[in-house]
Amino acid sequence: MRKSLVILGILNDSDLEWFIANGNVYRCQKGDVIIQEGAEREIGNNMYFLIDGSFEVWIATPERTPITTLYSGEIVGEISLLDSRPPSATVEAMENGIVLAINYKTLQAKMEIDINFQARLYRSLGVFLAQRLRNTTTLAGGGDDELLREKEESLDEIELDVLEELNLAGKRFEQMEERLRNSKSKVLPPIESER
Known about the structure:
The chain is an alpha+beta fold. The protein has helices at residues 3-10, 13-22, 78-83, 104-113, 115-140, 145-155, 160-181; strands at residues 24-28, 33-35, 46-52, 54-59, 65-71, 75-76, 90-93, 97-103, 186-187. Helices cover 48% and strands 22% of the residues. Strand 4 and strand 5 (65-71) form a beta hairpin.
């Protein structure tokens, strides 16, 4: 399940408008790094909605090790928002793409003055992280290849009471994607690691 669907399903329309109004739209090129593993918070200080393109997540120890590929509809950088530690992985564009960057300080200022927004955002992140932990636990159980495939296929099954939220979230993401693809954007500034 795409992270943005969980998050946008819990947030409301005015929250989405706030993200669009207060974020920066960047066009990135293949090879651009949007999050650098181990970078100090002042360097990697954004949560990103991935609007278009594909992005590889990798770690550098002991050598470059791919973790996963993310596509349009994902959100990255939320973990450092929650725990204030440097990123544990690098996120790099695999092709030209578009991201919406929300600065942590801007986001935290909004949460300080809008407790309802704060509650919705933290709840959405909690729900997503709980789902991720369940998926990881299920996959870590292993087993034979056929059983593992069945488990993987069942991970994204949606309970009926959540279906309406996800449908609304999908529509919200489509609206955001359409607006941001046609909006004025900036070139992604380079991230330099202090490691």
